[in-house]
């Protein structure tokens, strides 16, 4: 198993596995992240050099002390082995070296697994304008009618 | 008419006009650009403060001397008035102040208008791996079976 920064030529591999890993859901991930955010994006490959996990993130250009994690995926057969946690930890280490103090990400209210995961690794849910099933939600955050759960995590430099 | 940097709260307005401006095509533009790339993204409003044009771009994080223009739109009733050109010029000025020497963007081979526009304002087409109707194209650039035309423009500091 190898973990490394992402490269432009990972794009085809990653975009082709997304449909399978998300049970056929057509998630769009534009190539630009693989071209321009390589230093804060990571790939995990198995010994056969197949992609088994990836994290796409960046440092906010307008708020340079913040970073954002956009897209994370782990091969279904390699789940529950701590790979996602490993990707997040590496991202935190990387962005801390660039004076980032907090990391943000978002998810859908239906994605209970993602909400549980982010809460477990230390993200807090940002208060929104309504509550659904006990969870604070931001209405229309992803466009008209598209509610989102927002997460934030402070980065402690001694962690 | 007013031109200004984009803000988070422009997202709903812009995402709601996109469908109309693109004749019903469902173009996805994630909110993250409006949150994290405000200083290199611009909005034009008319006197009634309606959005009539926008440009979403950023400085490449991995190649800091490059910038990328991701999404540009002009209200159909305000086309052919030089608004797109104005948005690009402002983007060039902004990124030059951050030592950017070249700007990249991409389009589809079917978008002849976009190809003509970019060529007119000084972009060059990057040589690809095949030619379609006399235009150099990069196969699978946007994913399996999705070919793209790539543009690059050098920024001259005395321009």
Automatic annotation (TrEMBL), chains A, B:
<dbReference type="Pfam" id="PF00583">
    <property type="entry name" value="Acetyltransf_1"/>
</dbReference>
<dbReference type="InterPro" id="IPR000182">
    <property type="entry name" value="GNAT_dom"/>
</dbReference>
<feature type="domain" description="N-acetyltransferase">
    <location>
        <begin position="1"/>
        <end position="156"/>
    </location>
</feature>
<dbReference type="InterPro" id="IPR016181">
    <property type="entry name" value="Acyl_CoA_acyltransferase"/>
</dbReference>
<dbReference type="GO" id="GO:0016747">
    <property type="term" value="F:acyltransferase activity, transferring groups other than amino-acyl groups"/>
</dbReference>
<dbReference type="InterPro" id="IPR017255">
    <property type="entry name" value="AcTrfase_GNAT_prd"/>
</dbReference>
<protein>
    <submittedName>
        <fullName>Diaminobutyrate acetyltransferase</fullName>
    </submittedName>
</protein>
């Amino acid at each position: 198993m190898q973990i490394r920064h992402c490269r432009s030529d990972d794009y085809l591999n990653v975009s082709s596995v997304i449909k399978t890993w998300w049970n056929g859901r057509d998630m769009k991930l534009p190539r630009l992240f693989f071209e321009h955010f390589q230093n804060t994006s990571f790939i995990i490959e198995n010994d056969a050099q197949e992609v088994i996990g990836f994290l796409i993130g960046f440092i906010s250009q307008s708020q340079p002390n913040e970073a954002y994690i956009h897209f994370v995926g782990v091969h279904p057969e390699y789940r529950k082995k701590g790979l996602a946690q490993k990707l997040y930890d590496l991202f935190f280490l990387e962005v801390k070296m660039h004076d980032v103090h907090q990391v943000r990400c978002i998810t859908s209210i239906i994605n209970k697994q993602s909400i549980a995961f982010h809460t477990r690794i230390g993200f807090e849910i940002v208060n929104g304008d309504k509550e659904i099933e006990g969870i604070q939600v931001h209405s229309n955050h992803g466009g008209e009618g598209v509610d989102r759960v927002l997460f934030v995590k402070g980065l402690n430099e001694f962690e």
